[in-house]
Design brief:
7 helices; 81% helix; mainly alpha
Length: 177
């Protein structure tokens, strides 16, 4: 279920993390794998004569190499840590690690990794002429470019929600302690 910006700004950070996991993390591996397979099929279909398809596969693989460990760090380390911190604050217990430790450690790493994913998405957009298929593109190529555009939009949404809504909620805890 997609939530509106207004709804996302009003939910508690723990609920926001659950939303991020369901809406963005869960489908992402399959989405990237399907796009890579679709690109490979098109490359075979076109006799490997379209260099753009090889470049797309390379960028999708590069993106996944960046995102797979990033998602695991969020799912297995950062989000559980944040849940503990937000739960502690809701019942008046001390926060360990502190919000500043979180912001200067794991969150800072996540922000750098978000920047790297954005660089790869920019390269993908440039490689595909901002997801505009060639004039003579067949349905398969148009479908691929639509899928790549969707990946770009959704991954940028995902990153923005973490950077602009979730991580600032941690920073706000620092000002209340």
């Amino acid at each position: 279920m997609n939530r509106t910006e207004v709804e996302l700004r009003q939910v508690a950070p723990v609920e926001l993390m659950e939303y991020i996991l369901r809406r963005y993390h869960d489908p992402l591996p399959e989405q990237i794998m399907q796009l890579e397979q679709q690109t490979t099929r098109l490359a075979i279909e076109h006799g490997f004569e379209l260099p753009v398809l090889s470049a797309i596969v390379k960028l999708l693989r590069e993106l996944w190499v960046e995102l797979e460990p990033h998602l695991l760090k969020e799912e297995r380390v950062l989000f559980p840590m944040l849940q503990a911190v937000f739960s502690a604050t809701s019942v008046g217990h001390p926060m360990l690690p502190s919000p500043s430790q979180l912001m200067n450690g794991p969150v800072r790493v996540m922000l750098m990794e978000h920047d790297r994913a954005d660089e790869i998405l920019r390269a993908l957009a440039e490689t595909t002429e901002h997801y505009q298929p060639p004039t003579a593109a067949n349905d398969g190529m148009r479908s691929l470019y639509d899928g790549l555009r969707t990946l770009d939009v959704e991954l940028h949404e995902h990153i923005r929600i973490e950077n602009e809504l979730l991580f600032p909620a941690i920073a706000r805890l620092s000002s209340t302690t």
